Amino acid sequence: MEFTGHAYSLMGEKDSVLQVAENVYSGYKKIGRENYAAASLSFLIEHCIENGELDKARKLIDEYIHKSGLATAQGEIKPGHEMFYHIWGKFYEKEQKPDSAAYYYRKLIAQSTRLNSLESGYRGLLNVYTAKGVADSVAKYANLFADANDSLSLSLSTADVTRAQALYDYGEYQRIANEKSLANSRLYLVLACVLIMIIISSLALYLLIKRQKAKRQRRMQALRDKYSATMNLYHQALIDMKMMKLGFEKAKKAKTEEIMKLQQALSTYTEYSNVEDWNAEQSLVTNDMVVRLHDHAQKGLKATSSEWADLIHLVNELAPKFYHYITDEKLGLTEREVLVCILTRFHFLPSEIGNLLGLKKQSVSNLRANLNEKIFKTSGTKSFNANILRI
């Protein structure tokens, strides 16, 4: 029945393909072959994405990852099935999360040498950067996509080429040349529009920053007032703690915790002298995604691939300078090392990081020490958190 669906696909009959795909899925379910059913979901997922049914698509993607047997426990697609990264990228592209989409398109390109995979990956990246308006990247991936497309075409057999040549005359070739010329003209027009949009956006941003300069000064004064008030509370708490007697351990513990919190607040006020940085930090630590991961960690649960992708999208959106710094190719950090840096930036404890990544306490400690040495040229883990927060 799966081969029947492929035949309908070649004929362009999508409704028939959809019917066959649903029958295949339900058929495998009925005979108890959960893994086969999950492995057959690719077309259904693409159909949901094209029709904007993103919640349903997300559920089907999770079922494919966890039940098909075609992905590892860490959410990595096994060799031979890398084209699923293309579907994953299209999902995040539809969700308007271009960074997450680009992440999976790059994984497709990195993990597969097939020409059709490279073509799909470059086409996806071209779409992402066209939507984001990054002119240099649009030009880059347009060329790579064209090269991959040409290479794929050249891989046709001699017999196929001969039959194709027999079907078209000079007029057909002329028509194709005209279409390609028109496509190139449209591409240049798109690039020009993107450049104009970037210039307009830059000008608008400059005017906005200039307008908010006075407002930022008022916010800075408010921050200084809060710092002074917190310092007074801190000194009062120190006096209260000194006055406690030895027998009141419970009261002593509560007051010590209060002092620690106030010290953290003072450190935060001192560190975030810029109000915008302060607001950004609050957005990071109180984000629903971060709170959910803290809850997972406390329960000893590992994060899913989708949650890692959402976290990467979040940090790139709220702390872009930090994200670009740790993902710079010059540092050469692995995917796991990048995640450890991000979790540390979000104030996760080493024990929480171990639970989310499925690592032992010593492994997390070794990772933190290696990262401190690799990024900051400092041995040990004692200064790692402070170094990360200074990025």
Alpha carbon gyration radius: 27 Å
Mean pLDDT: 82
Report the span from N to C terminus. Answer: 55 Å
Taking the sheet with the most strands, its summary is: none
Q: What oligomeric state is this?
A: single chain
Helical run tally: 21
The total strand number stands at 0
Low-confidence stretches: none
Task: Looking at this protein, list some descriptive labels.
391 residues; 21 helices; mainly alpha; single chain
Write the layout of secondary structure elements.
Elements: H1 2-10, H2 14-30, H3 34-39, H4 42-50, H5 54-67, H6 84-94, H7 98-111, H8 115-132, H9 135-154, H10 158-167, H11 170-211, H12 213-243, H13 249-271, H14 275-285, H15 288-298, H16 305-318, H17 320-326, H18 335-345, H19 350-357, H20 361-376, H21 384-389
Helix pairs in contact: 1-2, 4-5, 4-6, 6-7, 6-8, 7-8, 7-16, 8-9, 12-13, 15-19, 16-17, 19-20
